[in-house]
Amino acid sequence: EDQVTQSPEALRLQEGESSSLNCSYTVSGLRGLFWYRQDPGKGPEFLFTLYSAGEEKEKERLKATLTKKESFLHITAPKPEDSATYLCAVQGASGTYKYIFGTGTRLKVLA
Amino acid sequence: DGGITQSPKYLFRKEGQNVTLSCEQNLNHDAMYWYRQDPGQGLRLIYYSQIVNDFQKGDIAEGYSVSREKKESFPLTVTSAQKNPTAFYLCASSFGSNEQFFGPGTRLTVL
Predict the structure, then answer these.
(1) What distance in Å separates residue B72's CA from the closest CA in chain A?
(2) What is the mean pLDDT of residues B27-50?
(3) What does the buried/exposed string (b/e) look like for A8-29 if buried means 16 or more CB atoms within 10 Å of the residue's CB?
(4) Which residues of B touch A32 (CB under 8 A)?
(5) Residue A24 sits at the chain B interface (C-beta within 8 Å)
(6) A3-22 pLDDT, tens per residue?
């Protein structure tokens, strides 16, 4: 069964304290792995798509990496405005466009 | 401005009522999706549609119905058969199997 597990559930960082969020997945043939940011009461905002092991994508203070079993979202020198829930989703090679979402990591960056 | 709109932002339903949530997109995407989000849980897929006049059940379709008569529109009806409808509902769209883009969400509360 396709499955996505995100850790930790919650993370508190001081401003400037770098860290990583983990997304472990089990899927029958990975078509894509997606990272989203969600602010309270809003829809998820697309961040990155990763397709194959070894791939990396960067955007400002965020960098996403992918292996055959997991993905990491690295946050370098975070700022309070990076506080949000970060969601990971995978799409398998099942012939449909369905995603399987993890439960997310709630990040709080303190000034 | 291209994007996805959902209305209303807040919706209140009495016991035994059917309610319809609106989702419209002007991104020319062929696929559209409905998710439900509950506290502490990942996004769960209700229904999805990969082309006009065709849709498939997701993981939690019981008590919900959809239609896809136009490419731009994918309304969701929450019927009285849905026993626990209070949740945050998110609509998304994609171009084929590419990344999904989300609307701002509708928060449904049962009175």
Answers:
(1) 18
(2) 94
(3) eeebebeeeeeeebebebebee
(4) 97, 99
(5) no
(6) 999 999 999 999 999 999 99
